[in-house]
Amino acid sequence: MDIFFNELTLFVIPIVAVTAFLVYSISVIRSDGAMAYFAQFAQMIKWIGTILVSFAGALVGLLAASADTSEKEDGDTEGDLAGVYNFRTRKYDNGTDPYGWYEDEL
Q: Around Cβ 86, how many Cβ atoms within 10 Å?
């Protein structure tokens, strides 16, 4: 039995987190007032949003930088289409490559 990730644990962790947040919120509202709490809460939400947007932008930039933008596809043949197709090099040649894989050998 996996004690760390069973259904009960995954159900209890969010309940404890929400309860802790509510207890903290109520204690801060009682001590500082509702307006001060909501101003601080809005600032915290803006900070978290800025971090998430920055992370998403960096992730998109990373994915865009690693994208293959060449117009050459894997199945493209280089050179002319005359000759025998070599499956090893994915090109047409004259059929004399000693290490080549040709259709008659498959």
A: 20
Indicate the pTM of the whole model. 0.46
pLDDT digits (tens, 9 = 90+) for 23-72: 999 998 899 898 988 998 899 999 999 999 999 999 999 888 887 776 66
Contact between 63 and 50 (Cβ < 8 Å): no
Q: Would you kindly state where each structural domain of the chain is located, as residue ranges?
A: 7-61
Q: What is the pLDDT of residue 85?
A: 86
Where b means 16+ CB within 10 Å and e means fewer, 6-26 reads: eeeeeeeeeeeeeeeeeeeee
Say if residues 90 and 75 touch (Cβ distance below 8 Å).
yes
Q: Is 33 left (phi over 0), alpha (psi -120 to 50) or beta?
A: left
pLDDT score recorded for residue 17: 94
Q: Is 58 helix (H, G, I), strand (E, B) or coil?
A: helix
Residue 31 to residue 54: CA distance in whole angstroms: 34
